[in-house]
Amino acid sequence: MPGKDYYVVLHGARKNVGDFLIRQRSVELFNNIRPDRELVQFPHWEPLDDKLDIVNNSKALVIMGSPGVQEHAYPGVYPVTKNLDDIKVPIVLLGVGAYLFPFNERNMTSFRFSKKSIGFFKKCDLISVRDAFTKRLLNINGFEHVEMLGCPAWYYYDYLNKPVSLPKEIKKIVFSVPQKKYFYKQFLSILDAVKEHFPNAQLKVIFNRGFVKDKLTTEDSAALYNCKLEIEKRGIEIDDFAYSVEKFITIEDFDIHIGYRLHTQIFFCSIRKPTYVVAEDCRSWSNYHTLSLPGFSGIIDQAFSTILPYMKNGFFKNAVFKTLPVVKPDMKLAGKIIDRIDYDISTNFAAFEGLDKKIDSNYLLTKKFIEQIP
User: Fold this and answer.
1) Could you read off the pLDDT of 89-108 as tens digits, one per residue?
2) Domain of 54: which CATH number?
3) Reduced to 3 DSSP states, what percent helix, strand and coil does the chain have, rounded to the nearest 5?
4) Which helix (H) or strand (E) holds 213?
């Protein structure tokens, strides 16, 4: 047992560098705001039944970040314990997000949590979420006492209370690769368009979950590796960011980010630089809407886009999604991104003015929230 009062904190850091960033920034928040508490860390995907003595002797059980607001949040994402009543201390959700695809209005308003997940959210004493989309999703399902605080990874102590850093010239561009192979062709078209439009810029492509097959990347690993080969054919530098949050330091001096990964977008927000994200699902979409930043949906609706959301999740819905035209990648997106960047250059990136104040203001709310935890 720790030598003083402590929290048990659950993290999602398994392979994706974004999850490591959430853990790092969450720990920094607690160390700065609640130095009176030690932290005992466990992965959120492992049950705590054999650790109940540690949990129940803590001051609170805190789940840090992750897109756990899903239909089967409990026990699918957060297995915690077989019997929730075995947890005797407050449960706190810090900056959690939703996962939903497609992410249109009808899918949101028709979404319902499983019975067990409803019981889990009712058991939580304090709930904070990372974006307005997740807050609304919980509100629609009857959970009113939800605070929108932003992702813990928004808050980088080296940059708090500093102004946005807007480039006078775009010399270095970093790209993040999509998670789903569904978007690889679209990504390569964007990469080609940007390379042609900015012929003198240094380009770098990062893989947030790496490009090497291992026990955590088995499905679609061949497609992922082929995507890597296509990038190398273009003579563009690549880097494997999996497992290593320290790698983010290597892109801190880049001027802009273009790509698909939420926490590369969030890293650039935290260092107050322009970022152009393409949303694969609701995660990135909700972040750029919450911060009122430029951003793009990677998909466009098809004929059956308004029917699918009303179906109950399961085998039949998955079969319908695979066989009927519901959504498809927007293959005209590259031109839209170039046009938007050109416009922002012409306005000295005015769209990003105020990003610093939004993050700093939300930090004060986050500080107040963390101070409430026993």
Assistant:
1) 999 999 999 988 766 666 67
2) 3.40.50
3) 45, 20, 40
4) none
